[in-house]
From TrEMBL:
Protein source organism: Dasania phycosphaerae
Key words, A-Z: Membrane, Transmembrane, Transmembrane helix
Protein name: Multidrug transporter
Membrane-spanning parts: 45-65
Amino acid sequence: MRALLESFSRFAAVLSLAVVLVLPQIAYSEAIKEEPTALAMTGDLLIARPFLLVATVVGTAVFIVSSPFAAAGGNLGGAAETLVLGPAKATFVRCLGCTKSGYQRDVVDADADK
């Protein structure tokens, strides 16, 4: 039982770190203009997002293990971008069915009323 509790607490810590590292990316996301089909949305929801979530968690674990070496080599930021932020951005900051990461926002044309 103790091993299960330790395993769960480690998983919770890794997941928390992943979420904390994703939050700044939301502010820097770019608006995109795509109109995905229902099939693309369904495939993204059922296939791509679960794999990307696993890639984010595994990338976070690999980043935690490799961070002392990356820091010693001077590429901690690059390692974080590649292992954690890239998969996390593709998982959480991409509209359902879209191929590019970023938020899909409705853009209002100011000249349309004239």
